[in-house]
Fold these 2 entries.
Entry 1:
Amino acid sequence: MRVVILISGRGSNMQALLDAGLPVEFACVISNRPDAKGLEIAAAHGVPTVVLNHRDYADRPGFDTALAAEIDAFAPELVILAGFMRVLSDAFVLHYERRLINIHPALLPAFPGLDTHQRALAAGVKLHGCTVHFVTPEVDSGPILAQAAVPVLPNDTQHTLAARVLRQEHRLFPQAVRWCAEGRVTWGEDGRVHVRDSLDAADSALVAPLS
Ligand code: GRF
């Protein structure tokens, strides 16, 4: 399976994917920010990189059209948003329907959008986590592939909580991409994602208790 990854910054989720020994070909990593740290990591892994600075475009449709042209040059079967911090236009999302996935740092449908860790603390939830989902036009609301939950501790700050969730992101994302690469994922008529092979499907809910 040929894959293109989109990033905007640090690239730790991208790195987890590159390091996971997945049965995929990483055709390219594209960043909308020239200073994204993840670009160096991708290059060190021998993956071609492209920078497409959104500031060079007058509007969102213009940027999204250029981005789609870059992506389509690689004819990917899967496009992965790994910390890509731009809202994408409906036209872009529909162009990649069923082959665009994202990782979100919360247990959707709770806390879509930004500042998820701070909002989870403010809400007093006792469990928090991360979600891998297909991307649909409505932000952070597409069918869920997999989730991982972590406890929220009394003394947590948004930073300690973010770090705990991030460790699970780095487990969950490679697992979900592996399922896609193995052709085991279907997005059913019922609007839900099904993973063939019941034993592994049970792993689509990871819980990481404190050890
Ligand atoms: C992650 O927390 C991801 O869930 C969110 O943005 C962050 C990106 O981190 N969408 P990194 O660039 O993968 O290190």
Entry 2:
Amino acid sequence: MGKIILTGDRPTGKLHIGHYVGSLKRRVELQNSGEFDEIFIMIADAQALTDNSDNPEKVRQNIIEVALDYLSCGLDPKKCTLFIQSQIPELTELSFYYMNLVTVSRLQRNPTVKSEIAMRNFETSIPVGFFTYPISQAADITAFQATTVPVGEDQEPMIEQTREIVRKFNSVYGEALVEPEILLPNNKACLRLPGTDGKAKMSKSLGNCIYLSDPEDEVKKKVMSMYTDPNHIQVSDPGEVEGNTVFTYLDAFCKDEDFEKYLPDYKNLDELKDHYRRGGLGDVKVKRFLNSILQEELEPIRRRRKEYEANIPYVYQILKEGSDKAEAMAARTLKGVKEAMKINYFDDLEYIEEQARKYKSQE
Ligand code: TRP
């Protein structure tokens, strides 16, 4: 069996640079590494509906945004399969069988579900679909026989839950499912990029995101108004780099070569940080440097996006072809699952003969 990737995102908004350093950039590298036999990237619209049932139009409108973000980051439909979750009915069927292998108390202990329930004020009015989405996520992963799931660390409990379901299924019914491994981002600063205001998380409602689709001047405006060290008032003041968002972004984006190009007075980020800590280095200079780096990274993404934006029907065609291919794979897995569960009655001639014999002996 080869190496297979499955991962995806909920289409609830445009993707931002946190998604980019946290996952998209890595996906493109994995795609181009040639190490994987198949790469499936899913737009998880059905999962997005589990907590957006009052706003299905938001999910519907963001399918194309996420698809454009994927393609513009360099995911190549010739090398990976981009598809839409709701178009693969086999995923729901698998979920229904997996539901028997998971208890309510186990779901209640899932840290992601727990914190999202708290965040959304769901308490006991939690929709059943939302409560059970870890099971549906296990179906997403196992349907494609994924060996590798590149995701952010917030998804760790989901992968653990999937592994448990796989082990349980295989022990009850026989080895039919592949146990996946999580693949976390390799740079610590990329685990979770804070918002431009210094808040722990980028979120649309806080207005603290830099989007991949933001135009150049918008990115610059956002960078120049970023949160830094509130006690670093005069240029000559010593400053803190820990918890200073501009430096956190530099940790995530900056390479040594960037200094040669944009800030030749320093060799690397450590030197820049030392100067900031000592005092004598102004925020504006550091922000300008970060802006140059971000613009260089985002420029090809913006360019590719423009090309795809000019041909939206082609993007839907990519998604349709991807969904067809994904469904064929999921159908194969489902067939194996039903065989393992021995609920493939009509293909199981021995079973039919056995029933026939049973009745014959009663004659
Ligand atoms: N839960 C993921 C998120 O919120 C999206 C997702 C759905 C996913 N199914 C998946 C990720 C399967 C990895 C594998 O972003």
